[in-house]
Amino acid sequence: KKAGSGKKRFYEDLSVAYSMNAKNTINTVDSLLFTNSTISKYMQNGAKHTIPISLPLKVLKYFTLSNSLNINDRMYSMSKDKYWANDTVIQGSDTLINEVVVDTTWGFSNALDYSLSTSLGTKLYGQVNFKKGLVRAVRHVFTPSIGFSYNPDFGSDRYNYYDSYIDGNGREIYYSKYEGSLYGSPPNSKSSRLTYSFANNLEMKVRNRKDTITGMKKITLIDRLTFSGSYDFAKDSFNISTLSVSGNTRLWKDFSIQYSSLWDPYLLDSEGNRVNKTVWSEYNRLFRWQNTNWSLSLSYSLSDATFDKDKKSEVPAAKPNIAGEELDEMNEILDDPVGYVDWNIPWSLSFNYTFQYRTSESYPDQSRAIVNTYVQNLGVNGQINITPKWKFTFSTSWDFNTNELGFTNISLYRDLHCWEMRFNWIPIGTRKSWNFSLNVKASILQDMKLNKKKDFRDN
Predict the structure, then answer these.
(1) CA 417, CA 436: separation in Å to the nearest integer?
(2) Which of 121, 204, 375, 397 has the smallest number of CB atoms closer than 10 Å to its CB?
(3) Which residues contact 355 (CB under 8 A, 6 or more apart)?
């Protein structure tokens, strides 16, 4: 708007974006690369345009109405038609009989789809305060949301993206004219869903002597315990989706617990197949338990700062203006976060233990059984500056189920001022390989490099 102040208009929150992705690929051997038959048979190309439009609105002060329109446009240089060959058909060098014949039609072809969605959400707060004791307050944040989403059936005849043929057994087979294309096809089914989500956060404040300002510390007991599902009006059966329940908590800094489960509103037959009959109609319950997942993660890190009290107590000064070498270093991290080498850490060692437990139902021999699955893994990562210019890093893991080492990677790095050298080695496993590279650091000269490698795919 012209004036920077004043009441905000609703259309100022309107957001429109655009992105485009285009590809052209050929997968064949060198000797056949530029032949007409190879281009017509193995070349794939296309472009996908994506336009998301969103407009959040405030309703009755405490509610947010989020509206969005997503448009996807796929552009291809070919489309496919299929029919059943009852008689002998010669296609190129192939003679076909009693099988599907695929005709490729060259020329510009366009496939557009769109979807609409809207949701209404708010936040409700409840808090209980205590005047005495270790716990001084408990707060519950409830975040309900209800919405609606819609996309038409782009498989209908009016859009001409899908077609069908009758096979040798008299069955009608539906197929997409863009089957196997780079960016897929529009959805071939109508969706008209009412969605719901109820999220819960539970926190408490406890006394903390280390905090000299407030004397309090916040602890998250339950983080995002969410119940979500939907009802599809466009389906003629199984309209109700499964109920998904998920949440996590972090009891202390390096220990977290994640939980998820699925609950099915429909019954199963004796072979474990879903039937279009609700659990409520039989047992007066809303849902039937399907599976549960628990995941525990415990991490611990050691470094030179762990044993250096002076280093741990250092508080870095604020540097609002970044320029010169610091700006170059920040750009280097943003351009290549994986390849960036931090020389400020002389050595570090970290451990990460994960434990996963999954329980689900199964129906072997037409009888219900509960299947329990356990997964335990210990990961170790480390790095050390051998000299001011040499750095050694490694990562590995131990699988307690198989009692074997998991993915292991060893890396050696040498700073050569304007150049750099890297050696990566995967000594065990299906991805066993090594890679040596010598290259110029400057991104503008990234093609000045020497690479030698032995890949796990090499003979």
Answers:
(1) 18
(2) 375
(3) 295, 296, 297, 374, 375, 376
